[in-house]
Write a structure and sequence with these properties.
- By secondary structure, this protein is mostly beta strands.
- It has a single domain, classed as Pectate Lyase C-like (3 Solenoid).
- Helix content is 7%, strand content 29%.
- It is built from five helices and 29 strands.
- The strands form four sheets. A ten-stranded parallel β-sheet has the order 1-2-5-8-13-16-19-22-25-28. A nine-stranded parallel β-sheet has the order 3-6-9-14-17-20-23-26-29, with no helix packed on it.
- The chain is globular.
- The two termini are 22 Å apart.
- Its cofactor is Ca(2+).
- Belongs to the polysaccharide lyase 1 family.
- It comes from Gossypium barbadense.
- Pfam families: Pectate_lyase_4.
């Protein structure tokens, strides 16, 4: 069971009674038993309540008309390297009732910022449709879910979401767009601490030293820097079911070529739709300030070091290439659909960056079961044996012929209470 907090009973919600500088109550709901978790896992493996879309995440929960009464079931539906991200599954539900962000140091109870900084696990939902224009980065504390289902929630027009040195985060069902740089300001990141933030990049979602993170079913576009960046030793991440459009620099995975701590990074990129208006970005040659990194970016994922499973995504637009990498990442591309642009010089899916062929030819990049459309082609390199991709394998790929069906509902939902989502 869980405690549903609504505007009508918020007087009973201790989170609405304590200022952000005080310690919130430690009471939480009982954790699920190992037996309950085993049942959930078995149901997931067997396609329990399958809606027949072929998308294992959606088939896990979307066909249930009562999804709104058991929101936290979503946490049991994750796949890939981020499958153990439970977010706020074992905590209370926190209802955001106020779209404001007047004070990033002392956020008002009922605001999204007040919710995400709390120390206890929380499943955060929204009382109504709202657009939240943040004054500074939204710095999340561990064990939080932001769940936009049932409302149209936009994080837009200001700095956006930062997942820095925390764990167990789920970001689901949001419209994240027009994100801008923030910084040179004090920002609170927990009930007991706030500090000075330097200039941020302006990412939609910035994962910095984070682990067990699941970014699912969001619509992202038009941010100052990346739409989703994961750097500085981040790992155990799944980026799934997102719809990405109209942006210059889409995704960066890895801090820098010289940052070897990223060698253990594992990221699953699954069931996403990389759509119209995505543009290749060129290298920045300037020396950036703290937390603002030298990057060489791409239309879609650019990988440094680490292990990356790119599975059942739909790449319908790119201008120069779809997947790039440097510093010897392992890239396992399976069951994707790559539709090349009409420009005959931009048909190649891959881009081996910052290295001569004598070096990159040993990097482990493979294409298995990918569908190449309009002359697209993938230049593989390194080993072909499956054993070489064990650390870059996180789930079974579906046939690429099903990609259109699997990704048809990518992006934020239009879920209505009392009906299938």
């Amino acid at each position: 069971m869980f405690s549903l907090i609504t505007p009508l009973n918020k007087a009973f919600n201790p989170l609405y009674k304590h200022p952000p500088s005080s310690q919130p109550p430690s009471t939480t709901l009982p954790h699920k038993t190992s037996k309950q978790r085993a049942i959930n896992a078995s149901r997931r493996n067997l396609g329990y309540l399958s809606c027949g879309t072929g998308n294992p995440i959606d088939d896990c929960w979307r066909c249930d008309p009562n999804w709104e009464t058991n929101r936290q079931k979503l946490a049991d539906c994750a796949i890939g390297f981020g499958k153990n991200a439970i977010g706020g599954r074992d905590g209370k539900i926190y209802v955001v009732t106020d779209s404001g962000d007047d004070d990033p140091v002392n956020p008002k109870p009922g605001t999204l910022r007040h919710a995400v900084i709390q120390d206890e696990p929380l499943w955060i939902i929204f009382a109504r449709d709202m657009t939240i224009q943040l004054k500074e980065e939204l710095i999340m504390n561990s064990f939080k879910t932001i769940d936009g289902r049932g409302a149209s929630v936009h994080i837009a027009g200001g700095p956006c979401i930062t997942v820095q040195y925390v764990t167990n985060i789920i970001i689901h069902g949001l419209n994240i767009h027009d994100c801008k740089q923030g910084g040179n300001a004090m920002v609170r990141d927990s009930p007991r601490h706030y500090g000075w933030r330097t200039i941020s990049d302006g990412d939609g979602v910035s994962i910095f030293g984070g682990s067990h993170v699941w970014v699912d079913h969001n619509s992202l576009s038009n941010c100052k820097d990346g739409l989703i960046d994961a750097i500085h030793g981040s790992t155990a991440i799944t980026i799934s079911n997102n719809y990405m459009t109209h942006h210059d620099k889409v995704m960066l995975l890895g801090h820098s070529d010289s940052y070897t701590q990223d060698k253990n990074m594992q990221v699953t990129i699954a069931f996403n739709h990389f759509g119209e208006g995505l543009v290749q970005r060129m290298p920045k040659e300037t020396t950036p300030p703290l937390f603002h990194f030298h990057v060489i970016s791409i239309n879609t994922p650019k990988c440094r070091h680490g292990y990356f499973h790119v599975v059942n995504n739909d790449y319908t637009h790119w201008e120069m290439y779809a997947i790039g990498g440097s510093a010897n990442p392992t890239i396992n591309s399976q069951g994707n659909r790559f539709t090349a642009p009409n420009n005959r010089f931009s048909k190649e899916v891959t881009k081996h960056e910052d290295a001569p062929e004598s070096e990159w030819k040993s990097w482990n990049w493979r294409s298995e079961g990918d569908l190449m459309v309009n002359g697209a082609f993938f230049i593989a390199s390194g080993a072909g044996a499956s054993s070489s991709y064990a650390k870059a394998s996180s789930l079974g790929a579906r046939p690429s012929s099903l990609v259109a069906t699997i990704t048809t509902n990518a992006g934020a939902h239009n879920c209505k209470k009392g009906s299938r989502c």
